[in-house]
Amino acid sequence: MLEPQAARSSPELVRVLKADALGRVELVRVGGALAVRRLALGGRLPFSRSVARALLARERRALRALEGLAGVPRVLAEDARDDALLRSFAPGTPLCLASALPRDFFERLEELVRAVHERGVCHNDLHKEANVLVGEDGYPALLDFQLASVHARRGRAFAVRAREDLRHAWKHRSQYLRALGELDPLGGAPPRRSLVALAWRHLGKPLYRGVTGVGALRELRNSGEARRAKDGPWPRWSAPVGPRAPLGT
After folding, report:
1. Alpha carbon of 233 to those of 69, 140, 176, 184, 199: distances in Å?
2. Residue ranges of domains in the chain, CATH in brackets
3. Contact by Cβ (8 Å): 244, 105
4. How many CB atoms are located within 10 Å of the residue 104 CB?
């Protein structure tokens, strides 16, 4: 584990994990330990750097609100800069690339999403399989909180966004169970999309893809839309891991 004093050392780049028109996500080594650094660099488009900094600030605020919650990265260094964020590295495999899943993985995923909501945070980007990690211990972890929202009040906006998080977790579970020839214990159709989700799907998402997919950085882009092909290969089931104790509250 990277200690706070080590986090003050100069990070040594290991490799670029993702790059787009808003910045880079890098795997770095600090004080002998691996960490992840997000840089809000901006690009050629007007205001792109301001947008990148705003997204980085959202991620920092969400991670601070979730401090101590297992399955969520930690902010490793208090940095006055508004264009860099250093967070803990979570070893594991994205859901879309996992070759094995604990039989209770999706139950544990829903527990984690609900624990995030208990802190007043909504992830808002769980439709991406790449944002769900299968940890080396078999437990789920969540990545990429740059679209996350922190809610002081549990009003309508919170309720709508929390429902969307759970709907995406439900869709992942249903997809994998169907592919593996099993019935979804919840059955039925997925919860309906909210108006906010529909607006994002038809307006916001195409704009976001356009911004993050333009220019020379397209060649470096490791798309967050990565998902498992419909014809697999699909993972095998492994032994259940059981409830995580404690998850953190």
Report:
1. 32, 20, 11, 20, 33
2. 6-238 (3.30.200.20)
3. no
4. 17
